[in-house]
Every structure is written in C-alpha cells, then in structure tokens.
Amino acid sequence: MPAERQEIDPALLQQAADILRSGCLVAYPTDTVYGLAADPTNAEAVRKLSTVKQRDPEQPMPHLVADAAMAASAAAAVPEQALLLIEAFWPGALTIVMEKAPGYASAATDDTIGLRVPDHSVPRELARMFGGPITGTSANVAGGPEPLSAEDVRRFLGEAVDLVIDGGTCPGDRPSTVIDCTVDPLKILRVGAIMREEIEHVLEIELEAP
C-alpha cells in the first residue's frame, strides 16, 4: 500500500540530528518501514542500538545517506557498475555494498558498507542535517514484526528510543534489495523491492539467483 506521508517540521529534524550527535537514538519513517538511527561513527551509540534491538552487535548495519555524493564520501570508491545502479534506482529500495572508505570510521560495519538513498524525504533530510550517514536498520526487535507506524515503534521499543519522528504509515511490503558490488561477478544478497531482472537489465549482465 502507498505510504501515508506527513509533512515534518524542519525544526524537529534539526532536533533529531542534535540527538544523534549526542549519542542517542532516533526512529524515523522511510519508503519501506520505520528505521532506527544512531551515529554510525559513535561506537557507544551503535552498541546501544544493538542492545535495544536485541541484535548481534557484530552484524553490519546498512547506512542511509542524503544523496550519491554522501554515499561516495563513505565509500573507498564507487565502481562503474554501482554508478549505473545508483543512476537507475536511487532514490529507492536498493542497498549497494561497496568498500568502506578508510577514513570513514563507522562502528556499524566492517571493511564494506551497505549504502542507500531512500525514496523518502525524512531520512534524506535527517542525514543531510546530521552531516553524514545514519544507520538504516529497522526500528523493531530483531526478527520481530515490521514497524509501519510511530505507534509500532513505541510498542516494540518503548522508552529506549529518544525521539520518534511520526511520519504516518510506511508501506512495508518488501525491504530493499541488497547487492554486493565488492565481488566479481556482482552478487545479490537479498531480493526485495527491486527484482533481479531489473538489475540485470540495467547492467546488461546475468546474475546468479540468491
């Protein structure tokens, strides 16, 4: 179903960015489900997020960015095939895994980084006001029901989240598709909203089914 998006006061987004800088957590609407943001460069904030979600702290988290330029600043390099995918599917439900830039000290991933520009203004503006990528994991207990509303987030995570940005109902349905551009041939790690055939059409190659 389509998302029932609500206008968000820019002052609230600025407050959310300040909360992230303080090492706390913010939940926000996206084009899929509600996400849970921490400052990826703050190891204590990332540990707090993992604890709240009851999530393996060693499991890498996707990062949401405001635009392709912000993605490039967090990646060591953007391969040619990744550029084609960015042009075709961003903003949208495609997470692209690339080599992490040596100077980008994310505590939420390892030597690679999954990056996405979501098709929703709230996380894009939040990342822009924050000044860098934010974590893009879902705002629920790991393995639990999808958080499709601010009420869901509060019910699932309670007072552990410092601010919930109420942006209406998210569409849910399918998560982002994840493709690894650090290997040759490229590998789809998860099929979601974007089908393998769509990616093959853009890249003019055949990919192994995940």
Order of SSEs: EHEEHEHHEEHEEHEEEEH
Query: How would you characterize the largest beta sheet?
Result: 6 strands, mixed
Number of individual domains: 1
CATH class term: Alpha Beta
The oligomeric state is single chain
In short:
With 210 residues, the chain is of the alpha/beta class. It is built from seven helices and twelve strands. The protein is globular and about 45 Å long.
Report on the structure:
The structure is a single chain. The protein has 210 residues and is α/β, with parallel strands linked by helices. The chain has one domain (4-203): DHBP synthase, CATH 3.90.870. The chain contains seven helices and twelve strands. A six-stranded mixed sheet has the order 7-4-6-5-11-12. Strands 8-3-2-9 form a four-stranded mixed sheet. A two-stranded antiparallel sheet has the order 1-10. β2 (26-28) and β3 (35-37) form a beta hairpin. It is globular. It starts with a strand and ends in a 7-residue tail after the last helix. The mean pLDDT is 95.
Main attributes of the structure:
single chain; alpha/beta; 7 helices; DHBP synthase; six-stranded mixed β-sheet; 31% helix; 210 residues; four-stranded mixed β-sheet
